Amino acid sequence: MARRTNTTQSVQVTISTTPAYHAVLEKLAESGMYGKNPADVASRLLTDRILDGLDTNEFENKLKNKDRLLAFATS
Fold first, then answer.
1. CA–CA distance from 19 to each of 4, 13, 23, 32 (Å)?
2. For position 55, what pLDDT does the model report?
């Protein structure tokens, strides 16, 4: 079955990781559950983690004041 065209606007983000994490991303891509290549898998995992944090108000709780924002951003 052909993959549908992504109609959601997106921007490119570049990340670097260790060879060990890249190997994990490759293994997950081989399963096809999270994407077809390491970049797709990383995007899916990041998206899932952000949505989880938003659902639980984790980020809102960490960003209640500027001091906490600075600590969060630099941790």
1. 31, 19, 6, 20
2. 85
